[in-house]
Specification:
The chain is of the alpha/beta class. It folds into two domains: 7-145 and 307-358 and 393-403, Rossmann fold (3-Layer(aba) Sandwich), CATH 3.40.50.450; 159-304, Phosphofructokinase domain (Rossmann fold). The chain is 33% helix and 17% strand. It has helices at 21-33, 49-53, 65-70, 93-105, 117-133, 159-180, 199-203, 227-241, 277-289, 299-304, 311-329, 380-386, and strands at residues 7-13, 39-45, 57-59, 108-115, 138-143, 187-192, 216-219, 244-249, 293-297, 335-343, 348-355, 398-399, 402-403. It has a five-stranded mixed β-sheet with strand order 3-2-1-4-5, with helices on both faces. It has a four-stranded parallel β-sheet with strand order 7-8-6-9, sandwiched between helices. Strand 12 (398-399) and strand 13 form a beta hairpin. It is elongated, with a radius of gyration of 23 Å.
């Protein structure tokens, strides 16, 4: 088939959504619409890859130009996401063959999958199967993850806004605790996301700066939790400052290698279902040191806070969506638009290309050089990395005091296959 043949495109969102994933969707759709000579319709999967497996497609062409543009400032996943991991080709080839069957029925030649590491793996497998079956499809992974753990790319769209939210929340909560510490709460514990990598927890370290010094202690997944050392540090902070704030990653492990918050449950990807480490830490402080505490879990709030999104993050999220389409139009396949930092000060970045074979099933952890020697804080090197990612404000429009977000019509596409597929 000639490279210039007009084909349809498929876009889907995967895994946990972010404050800016829709900005990537906006980048994909707006860019595709500018190339109608090469790209026909842009379909979206309803609830991610499940929409492709069940042939439940959305025609984004039914959405107005204004509504697609509004995706740039709307949080969460406009087309629905899912936690559904496709097995390996050798384990369940039928799933991948079903995807190709649906793509062929709707003349889909471009596959844009917006997600994290598991999504990169799915994208890679689809490109491989397409070649094996002789079906021409270009699979481009659009990076997204609040965990910031994808390799090659300097940072991941979605992370900058979470980092801004956590840094801001830690600073504000610390001011609150400071005002009450004399006769009430002396320790505040904030639990943040981060299964294996402590990037989000590290952002809490930005709350304290030279012009606003605050006693903030961080618990990273990369540093084994030392009970005695931790308690001594908390007690010393309270003795010196009268209070302290603790930012703890959900992925913190004890000396036995087990998550402190592991309740024995598993999510759809087979990962330990975490959450609840904040009360574990807070109760330990109370039991051993006697300090009154409060704790909170940032949970969905940290990844949904579009009202406090980083301008850098929004721009990068849109840029990777735009670049994904441009790479596909250049004939690229099995690649991911990556963010490459070219300068710290002034902060500059550009989009480069990363092969999916070097992205799929790999995690980027916090470098030890980013964590202070005592294991409870961030180094100047880490601060220099993080600060540009949270810079700038990109407020959504407000109406009657509340942010105004768009809800798409999400008109379904008529099914063409007689067979169904259960997930």
């Amino acid at each position: 088939m000639p490279k210039t043949a007009k084909r349809n495109a498929f876009y889907a969102q995967s895994g946990g959504v972010t404050a800016v994933i829709n900005a990537s969707a906006c980048g994909v759709i707006e860019t595709a619409r500018k190339h109608r000579d090469r790209i026909g319709k842009v379909y979206a999967g309803r609830n991610g890859i499940i929409g492709a497996l069940t042939e439940d497609l959305i025609d984004t062409g039914k959405e107005s130009k204004a509504d697609i543009a509004a995706l740039r400032h709307t949080p969460s996943g406009a087309f629905g996401s899912c936690r559904y991991k496709l097995k390996g080709l050798d384990q369940n080839r039928a799933e991948y063959e079903r995807l190709i069957e649906v793509f062929a029925a709707h003349d889909i030649g471009y596959f844009f999958y917006n997600g994290g590491g598991d999504s990169a793996d799915t994208c890679l497998k689809i490109s491989q199967l397409g070649r094996n079956l002789g079906y021409p499809i270009q699979a481009i992974h659009v990076p997204k993850t609040v965990d910031n753990d994808l390799p090659i790319t300097d940072n991941c769209p979605g992370f900058g806004s979470v980092a801004k939210y956590i840094a801001t929340s830690t600073r504000e909560a610390s001011f609150d605790v400071a005002s009450m510490a004399k006769t009430s709460t002396k320790v505040f514990v904030l639990e943040v996301m981060g299964r294996h990598a402590g990037w989000i927890a590290a952002a809490g370290g930005l709350a304290s700066s030279d012009d606003t010094p605050l006693p903030v202690l961080i618990l990273f997944p990369e540093v084994t939790f030392d009970r005695a050392k931790f308690l001594a540090r908390v007690d010393a902070m309270v003795a010196k400052h009268g209070f302290c704030s603790i930012v703890v990653s959900e992925g913190v492990r004890g000396p036995d290698g087990k998550f402190l918050s592991d309740q024995g449950l598993r999510d759809a990807f087979g990962h330990a279902q975490l959450g609840g480490v904040a009360p574990v830490i807070a109760n330990l402080v109370k039991a051993e040191l006697g300090h009154k505490f409060h704790w909170a879990v940032a949970d969905y709030l940290q990844r949904a806070a579009r009202h406090l999104a980083s301008k850098t993050d929004v721009e990068q999220a849109y840029a990777v969506g735009k670049a994904a389409v441009e790479m596909a139009l250049k004939g690229r396949n099995s690649v991911m638009p990556a963010i490459t930092r070219t300068s710290d000060s002034p902060y500059r970045w550009k989009i480069t290309e990363a092969p999916l074979a070097k992205v799929a099933n790999r995690e980027k952890m916090m470098p030890r050089s980013f964590i202070t020697r005592d294991g409870f804080g961030i180094t100047p090197k880490c601060r220099a990395y993080l600060e540009p990612l949270i810079r700038g404000e990109d407020y959504p429009p407000f109406r009657n005091g509340l942010p105004r977000y768009v809800t798409l019509k999400n008109v379904g596409v008529k099914r063409k296959l007689s067979t169904t597929f259960n997930v």
